[in-house]
Amino acid sequence: MTSATLRHSVWILRGNPLTAVAAAGVTLFVLLAIFGPWIVPYDPVVSNVSEALQPPSAAHLAGTDQLGRDVLSRLIIAARLDLAIAVSAVGISFVIGAVVGAFCGYAGGRLDRAVGRFVDVMMAFPLFVLAMAMVAALGNRIENIVIATAIINLPFYIRFARAEVNVRRNVGWVEAARACGESHFSVVLRFLLPNILPAMAVQISLNLGWAILNAAGLSFIGLGVKPPTPEWGIMVAEGARFISTGRWWLVAFPGLALMMAVLCFNLLGDGMRDILDPRMRT
Predict the structure, then answer these.
(1) Cross-referenced Gene3D superfamilies, in alphabetical order (predicted)?
(2) Which of 13, 114, 231, 257 falls 20 to 30 Å from 24 in CA-CA distance?
(3) Containing domain of residue 122, as a range?
(4) What's the CATH number where 67 sits?
């Protein structure tokens, strides 16, 4: 990062403190995911029925669930799994979608139109329902959740890369690269793709939040991670049975963690859009 970019980023953060708060929140979730197993006060999967359904207290800051497991420990450990699923899925869809979209946008013609129609057909379906169908068909293993989430994220990156490369494929510096003997393959990978990556970083941040919500939604309806693995969607689903009895903490804390994670990634994406927008530098 150059000094000019750093100064611009600081200026944006001063004018939009929510972006700084979102960045701090994302950093906190990442740290919890990395160091969670070493900082949790209790084993997240060991049951202690004698302490079941205890409200928040000094011993259990977020209470205990129906099996006496510490809710806070399960929340912290679940952050690693949910973030791992989201990062893996978005990373796969970003790499494949950016490359496919960039080559289609550069080549144009029938290939571009065919891929464009395929993407349109995919986006015509409710994407969460499509993920449900794929996980139901493949089995609710973690790797299948990652694959399904990656597939439903592909259209965003393919469309974005196609549009951005299509605008840039005949600009002067691309023509100069071709005139210097660069192959079409090299032009796309060395010149066009790096040029659109900053703008795609905004989409990555937004999709990370959506991928977390998608993984939690699949777990909530029983198609995601299997119990007793700590996962935010499972915790909300299990706690929903006890709302009518006043055990609010079983739903409130995992729901709050899920909401804050998605909100932080979305706000960070909005801030990155401001930072990367050339019009904001004037």
Answers:
(1) MetI-like
(2) 231
(3) 20-40+61-277
(4) 1.10.3720.10
